[in-house]
TrEMBL record:
GO terms for molecular function: ATP binding; four-way junction DNA binding; four-way junction helicase activity. Residues 72-91, 107-126 form the Helix-hairpin-helix DNA-binding motif class domain. SUPFAM superfamilies: DNA helicase RuvA subunit, C-terminal domain, Nucleic acid-binding proteins, RuvA domain 2-like. Residues 153-197 are annotated as: Domain III. This is Holliday junction branch migration complex subunit RuvA. Gene3D superfamilies: 5' to 3' exonuclease, C-terminal subdomain (1.10.150.20), DNA helicase RuvA subunit, C-terminal domain (1.10.8.10), Nucleic acid-binding proteins (2.40.50.140). Belongs to the RuvA family. Keywords: ATP-binding, Cytoplasm, DNA damage, DNA recombination, DNA repair, DNA-binding, Helicase, Hydrolase, Nucleotide-binding. Homotetramer. Forms an RuvA(8)-RuvB(12)-Holliday junction (HJ) complex. HJ DNA is sandwiched between 2 RuvA tetramers; dsDNA enters through RuvA and exits via RuvB. An RuvB hexamer assembles on each DNA strand where it exits the tetramer. Each RuvB hexamer is contacted by two RuvA subunits (via domain III) on 2 adjacent RuvB subunits; this complex drives branch migration. In the full resolvosome a probable DNA-RuvA(4)-RuvB(12)-RuvC(2) complex forms which resolves the HJ. InterPro entries: DNA_helicase_Holl-junc_RuvA_I, Hlx-hairpin-Hlx_DNA-bd_motif, NA-bd_OB-fold, RuvA, RuvA_2-like, RuvA_C, RuvA_C_sf. Transmembrane segments: none annotated.
Length: 197
């Protein structure tokens, strides 16, 4: 239904953004990979996919066609829904993910949130012949340079809860403070400063 939405980034949250276009604010679920490449107030073009369920309709979107394509591939795998697909794309960039799949790297892929060994094997089995071999980074498999942004955010939330803050307070603080993909320790300090105001 929507090929893309072009507008101004009005809000950036942990797992979604709000883009205003012609007076309408679109809540778009997205990955940390996309979020880290956006800034509030900038004009963007977000490539989108409308997700329709029996009880809900939502939009998933990404800054690049490449990431949208990978999301669609992941979402086509049996037992993998939009939430898990977004979690995987928050964990590893599309080119690296393609290299994991083509090389059959179950160990690396199973480290993604919501993905165990069996799910990783199923992703590789179902997508190996669908990956664009000209658009991957094999060298990243050797470096095992995995994007752990989503895991680090979860660590920060858990750390704040351990310090006595409620889960909602912790999530709010991370939402407000994680604008530039900070390192874990730096983000914790910034969140504590926010919570103590």
């Amino acid at each position: 239904m929507y090929q893309y939405i072009k507008g101004i980034v009005e809000e950036i949250s942990i797992d979604y953004i709000v883009v205003e276009s012609f007076g309408i604010g679109y809540r778009i679920n997205t990955s940390q990979n996309t979020i880290c490449n956006l800034k509030e107030g900038e004009e963007v073009k977000i490539y989108t996919k409308l997700i329709v369920r029996e009880d809900d309709m939502s939009i998933c979107g990404f800054k690049t066609k490449e990431e949208l394509r990978m999301f669609e591939l992941l979402n086509s795998v049996s037992k993998i829904g939009p939430k898990v697909a977004l979690g995987i794309l928050s964990f590893v960039e599309p080119k690296k993910l393609g290299s994991f799949i083509l090389s059959g790297d179950v160990k690396a892929l199973s480290k993604a949130p919501g993905v165990g060994k069996k799910t990783a094997e199923r992703i590789i089995l179902e997508l190996k012949d669908k990956i664009d071999k000209n658009n991957i980074e094999f060298n990243c498999v050797l470096r095992n340079d995995i994007n752990r942004v989503s895991l680090e955010i979860e660590e920060v939330v858990q750390a704040l809860v351990a310090l006595g803050y409620s889960l909602s307070e912790a999530k709010e603080a991370v939402n407000k403070c994680n604008k530039n993909c900070l390192e874990t320790e730096e983000l914790i300090k910034k969140c504590l400063a926010y919570l103590m105001k």
